[in-house]
Amino acid sequence: MMNIGINGVEQQGNMYTIHYTLEQPLPFDLHDVVMVQAGDYVVGSVRELNEHQITLYINEAELQWGEQAVIQLAFSPTVSIEGSAAIIEKLGYFPDFQQSVITHYDIAKEQVELTMQLADPSVQSSVKLTFLEAFDIEFSPPDARMNIIAEMDFRYEVTDLVVDIEAAQGLSGSFFCGKIKAELIEG
Questions:
Q1: Distance, first Cα to last Cα, the chain
Q2: What is the pLDDT of residues 92-123, one digit of tens each?
Q3: Three-class SS string for 128-187?
Q4: pTM summary value
Q5: Within 13 Å, how many C-alpha atoms sit on residue 163's CB side?
Q6: What is the band of 55 on the pLDDT scale with cuts at 50, 70, 90?
Q7: Strand order of the sheet with strand 160-169?
Q8: Is the dihedral of CA 122, 93, 58, 176 positive or negative?
Q9: 141: Cβ–Cβ under 8 A, 6 or more apart, which residues?
Q10: Could you tell me the residue ranges of all domains in the chain?
Q11: Across the strands, what pairs with 116?
C-alpha cells in the first residue's frame, strides 16, 4: 500500500492520468489491477507509468479526487494468468470482462472454464479462461437466454487466487483457484 500526494488528474474518457509526488516510482507493471482510494474508491488497470504519473483505465464516468491517494496492487494478470501476454500483445490490454457475454461455461469439481465474448465492439474476439485447482466453487443458476458479466474481480488471498463474478444477467459466482490460463479466440 502506498500513499501518494496528487498534483492533478487529467481525464480522457475512462483514462485517468494521475500526476503524483513520491520519492520513488510506484511498484506496478503495465496492466496490473490496482485499488485506489482518493475521495472515491475505485479499481483500475495500469496503462502507463513513470516516476511522476500513472495512467489508469477506470470504468467510471466521473470521479472525485482528493489531494492524497492510497494505491495498492489488487492483481497482476501478467504474473498470474498464463497466456495474458499474448492477449495483451493482440489487444493492447488485458480485458476487465465488464459487460462481456458468457458464451460457454463448464463448472467441474476442480476446474472452472468460461468463454466470454468481449463487450468492446471494435474487438470481435472471445477469451477463454480456465481456472485450475479450483475449490469452494459457488455459482448461481445460469440464465437460459443470456449470461452477462457486470464485474469480474481477481485478487490474491495468501497463496490462492480469488475470483468473484457479479452478473448483470444470469450466471454469477465466486471461487478460489491455484492457476489461471487464458486464450484469445478470434472471430
A1: 40
A2: 889 989 999 999 999 999 999 999 999 988 88
A3: EEEEECCEEEEECCCCCCCCEEEEEEEEEECCEEEEEEEEEECCCEEEEECEEEEEEEEC
A4: 0.85
A5: 31
A6: very high
A7: 81-82, 179-186, 125-132, 111-117, 101-107, 148-157, 160-169, 173-177, 135-139
A8: positive
A9: 171
A10: 2-75, 78-186
A11: 102, 127
For residues 113 and 109, give the distance between their C-alpha atoms in angstroms, rounded to a whole number: 11
Q: Which residues partner with 10 through β-bridges?
A: 17
pLDDT at 78: 93
**Whose CA is closest to 157, among 175, 171, 140, 172?**
175
Written as one letter, the residue type at 91 is L
How many angstroms separate the most distant Cα atoms in the chain?
54
Separation of alpha carbons 89 and 108, rounded Å: 30
Q: Is the pLDDT at 23 greater than 80, yes or no? A: no
Which pLDDT score is estimated for 132? 97
Cβ neighbour number for residue 50 with a 10 Å cutoff: 9
Residue 73 in grid coordinates: 496492487
Report the half-sphere exposure of 154 (CA within 13 A, side-chain side). Answer: 26
Residue in the block written with cell 466453487:
137
Give the residue from 62, 76, 86, 65 showing the smallest Cα distance to 18. 65
Query: Could you name the CATH architecture of 2-75?
Result: Beta Barrel (2.40)
